[in-house]
Design brief:
By secondary structure, the chain is an alpha+beta fold. About 25% of the residues lie in helices and about 35% in strands.
Length: about 210
Amino acid sequence: MRLGRAFVRRSLLLLSLALSVGACSHVPVSSLPQLASLDLDTADLSVLRAAVRAPKEIAPVPGGAFVTMSYWRQGEEGRKTTVQAVLEVEADPRALSALKEEEREGQRITVFRLTDEGRRKLEAARSEMLALKSDELAKGRRLHGSLAVSAEGCVRGALPSGPLPLSTYLRLKPGGNFVPLIRDVDLRALLAQAGSDETAMKACPG
């Protein structure tokens, strides 16, 4: 079951707001073939990495990043099964070096990985999903799903004026490239689409 376009929801945002709808329309065209080739049925979730590039004044909230996997029978989206797994900041500098060409002055790149508990949780959910998929196919029905990555952000100091460029990335292949999900989208514009502004983001503690 290749879940590329149908399964990978491009919604990695360094926000505590639900802005995935606004972000999806900004996926680079060049990323679509790579996203479509991702096979989450067999992907090694231990190599899953997500990354955010945002103004350096915006920092990740510890314990506030998650991967959410959902799946449902055809025509029954209202009865979907959803599992959420915690992400942690990646400490291995090699992961960040893979994004060397994406570095920009005045911006910070943060890379996330699944915790061991989160990986086991998603692997168990995937096994259940694949068993249900097999059963549904035998009945002539399809199974649908989505994978979303979200991360809360907090603000340190005053945000600069003008656009706040936000870029997000996903890697699901060992040693592979990070695939851009959104690139240099103005965070202020996304917040405005959601009927909010940067004051919705909390100040970082300490």
